[in-house]
């Protein structure tokens, strides 16, 4: 008897879709041997979706997750990361690393983009070092 694999349903609502995308991204990172250190860290400046330790166990990776309902006519989710958002993420990472004494560690900002169709599996793209400091 074959094991049934659960196909995630697309959640209703933008916030629920975003939370489901972050959960899906965290699962992908764990399966890729990243160690999740924190999720949804809020500061005065903004929020970091995921902070993880890379498989090399030295590089700290700050992950911005963008999820959207799949629409082939629309731009991909990663297109939502404007120059303003990039500057804000860099500021967040610098602030967070300074507070924790992590400035001497290798730091990286990745983006995980997820297209979530009405039916079927979401498509995930992990863009390593997508935003350069």
Description:
By secondary structure, the protein is α+β, with helices and mostly antiparallel strands. The protein has a single domain (14-131), classed as Trna Endonuclease, Chain: A, domain 1. Helices cover 27% and strands 33% of the residues. The chain has a 5-stranded mixed beta sheet. Strand 4 and strand 5 form a beta hairpin. The chain is globular. Mean pLDDT is 90; it is low at 1-5.
Short descriptors:
133 residues; alpha+beta; Trna Endonuclease, Chain: A, domain 1; five-stranded mixed sheet; 2 helices
CATH class: Alpha Beta
Helix coverage percent of residues?
A: 25-40%
Our count of domains comes out at: 1
Share in β-strands: 25-35%
Radius of gyration: 15 Å
Distance between the termini: 51 Å
| Second rung of CATH, namely the architecture | 3-Layer(aba) Sandwich
Helix and strand composition category: alpha+beta
Overall body shape: globular
Q: Main sheet?
A: 5 strands, mixed
- The helix/strand order is HEEEHEE
Strand order of the largest sheet: 1-2-3-4-5
């Amino acid at each position: 008897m074959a094991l049934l694999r659960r196909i995630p349903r697309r959640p209703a609502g933008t916030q629920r879709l975003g939370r489901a995308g972050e959960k899906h991204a965290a699962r992908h990172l764990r399966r890729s041997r990243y160690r999740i250190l924190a999720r949804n860290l809020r500061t005065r400046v903004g929020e970091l979706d995921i902070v993880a330790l890379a498989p090399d166990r030295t590089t700290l990776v700050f992950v911005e997750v963008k999820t959207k309902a799949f629409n082939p006519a629309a731009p991909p989710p990663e297109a939502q990361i404007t120059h303003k958002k990039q500057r804000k993420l860099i500021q967040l990472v610098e602030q967070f690393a300074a507070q924790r004494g992590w400035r001497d560690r290798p730091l990286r900002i990745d983006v995980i983009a997820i297209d979530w169709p009405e039916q079927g599996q979401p498509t995930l793209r992990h863009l390593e070092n997508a935003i350069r400091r």
